[in-house]
Design a protein that fits this description.
Number of domains: 1
Structural class: mainly alpha
Strand content: under 5%
Distance between the termini: 30 Å
Helix content: 40-55%
Length: 199
């Protein structure tokens, strides 16, 4: 695959070489729980031991073999699907690791995740404000207004609630990698010009 150069606003003096990752680079590709787990692991350079410890913080013990199977490519015979409960447990563990454990009963991991829930958990784990998220999306060349962003975090029953599309979550994960792992920037599927999302 030919990878275009990406010039991000955070590093205006030097073009960023983008890293090819088919799980996020195919336009229109529906992301899976495994894609998201791989991307977060890569962005923060988590080793197997760290991954196992994050699951343990959410009281969801896993083995090194399970981690390895979830991170394999989809066409690998040893590949295993990461369930919604497993990804939710991992994200809950990431929140505890970065923000500390709350007093009282711990939240039960969701059995079924959607992009809005995943987005919200990452926002909490990384302690991001709206301006921070917009900046991260800008790194991936995605333009989003504050009202559009806040719609993703509203109660689903609210009339201004909007479903977070794969395009938004995908670019948010790409932006996270650009921000937190600048040594190996992410591959963007987007055109060089700034994208505007229709929600």
């Amino acid at each position: 695959m030919s990878c275009p150069a990406f010039t991000g606003p955070a590093l205006p003096e030097q073009p960023i070489k983008v890293h090819c990752d088919d799980s996020l680079s195919r336009v229109g590709n529906t992301m899976t729980n495994n894609d998201i787990l791989r991307r977060i692991r890569y962005a923060f350079d988590f080793g197997d031991a760290k991954m196992i410890s994050l699951f343990a913080l959410a009281l969801h013990p896993v083995t090194r073999e399970q981690i390895s199977a979830w991170l394999k490519k989809d066409d690998d015979p040893a590949f295993q699907e990461c369930s919604g409960t497993e990804l939710a447990s991992f994200l809950n563990g990431l929140i505890i690791d970065r923000r500390g454990r709350k007093d009282g009963p711990q939240p039960e991991p969701e059995k079924h995740l959607n992009n809005n829930i995943i987005f919200r958990k990452l926002k909490i784990a990384l302690n991001l404000k709206d301006d921070d998220i917009i900046e991260i999306l800008t790194l991936a060349r995605l333009r989003l207004s504050k009202p559009e962003l806040s719609a993703f975090f509203r109660n689903p029953a609210h009339r201004h609630y909007r479903v977070c599309k794969d395009q938004v979550l995908r670019n948010f994960l790409i932006g996270i990698q650009i921000k937190y792992r600048a040594d190996k920037p992410a591959k963007r599927a987007a055109k060089p010009d700034m994208q505007k999302v229709s929600i």
